[in-house]
Design a protein that fits this description.
This protein is mostly beta strands and 113 residues long. 0% of the residues lie in helices and 51% in strands.
């Protein structure tokens, strides 16, 4: 399976960050796995954000739940993260993953004030 993130190169504070993960070699609707997003801010460890499970149910990080949503487009085999009201503290490298055996290469997202 391969995962590829896509999204903006730069986001302005207070805007909504939107990232899409395109999956190939696997199916987000039939593979018995969860799919989601994690991030790594500069100089810090990995932080999980959200997962969507085979059933369509979701799990959100409590620290980000109020600003986060995840959706999937089954026709395109994609899932999308939206993080609202971003601040420079949301600057990070964002990865889409299939829990827990496959990762995208990650996409760096700076948030400008």
């Amino acid at each position: 399976v391969q995962l590829q993130e896509s999204g903006p190169g730069l986001v302005i504070s207070s805007q909504t960050l939107s990232l899409t993960c395109t999956v190939s070699g696997g199916s987000i609707t039939t593979d018995p796995w969860s799919w989601g997003w994690v991030r790594q801010p500069p100089g810090k460890g990995l932080e999980w954000i959200v997962f969507i499970h085979l059933s369509g149910s979701t799990s959100y990080s409590p620290s980000l739940e109020g600003r986060t949503s995840i959706s999937r487009d089954t026709s395109k085999n994609q899932f999308t993260l939206q993080l609202s009201s971003v601040t420079p503290q949301d600057t990070a490298k964002y990865y889409c993953i299939r829990w827990s055996d496959a990762w995208g290469q990650g996409t760096q997202v700076p948030v400008s004030s």
